[in-house]
What we know:
By secondary structure, the protein is mainly alpha-helical.
Amino acid sequence: MPGTVVDGQEIDAVYAATREAAERARRGDGPSLLEMKTYRYRGHSRSDPAKYRPEGELDAWKARDPIELLGRKIIADGLIGPNDQGEIRAEIQADIDAAAERAATARYPTLEETRPYVYAD
Length: 121
């Protein structure tokens, strides 16, 4: 099985490797192993302050945040203007907040309602 190590901070690299692996599988050439090298900004749990990180490591990785890198790329490519990113982020955050509110106020499903999402016939 072929394996590929991918810079998980680079969205284009992740897309290309994933697309290649999917096409390989669809051709019937079997599975692929994709190792996406990325970085966890927080500790292993809510109670982990991540004090084991060297000074500056987190900042260096945040400078390579995938969302920030993509934002800079689409601005450089002329797909959006430099001032459009804030508006896009605000719209997305509003969608997330609305979805979280719907989830928080929704009733819990019954066991019978969840069964089709857990078990296959």
